[in-house]
Amino acid sequence: MKAIWNNTVISESQDTVVVEGNHYFPHESIKSAYFKPSNTNTVCPWKGTASYYTIDVNGKENPDAAWFYPEVSELAKGIKNRVAFWRGVTIEE
């Protein structure tokens, strides 16, 4: 699977986990040069507190377009150390 934004592959892996329709990529599969930490956090009642990345590709930013759970609940252990995408990031095979 590939995560693509601004015509650039920002993550690629054969090992994604799908939860609630979102592909969670292994954290080590993201191309870190395109990711900047964000101060945004949200809380999911069953997964925990999410942290976000702003994606920056060729000078174009997509704020908070990737998220991950630094600490996951027992119910969400399958997405530990994984990153998911939204806000225009496309997922393709």
From TrEMBL:
Please list the residue ranges annotated as the DUF427 domain: 1-87
What the entry lists under Pfam families is as follows:
NTP_transf_9
Q: Which residues form a coiled coil?
A: none
InterPro entries from the UniProt entry: DUF427 (IPR007361), DUF427_sf (IPR038694)
Q: What is this protein called?
A: DUF427 domain-containing protein
Give the source lineage, highest ranks first. Answer: Bacteria, Pseudomonadati, Bacteroidota, Flavobacteriia, Flavobacteriales
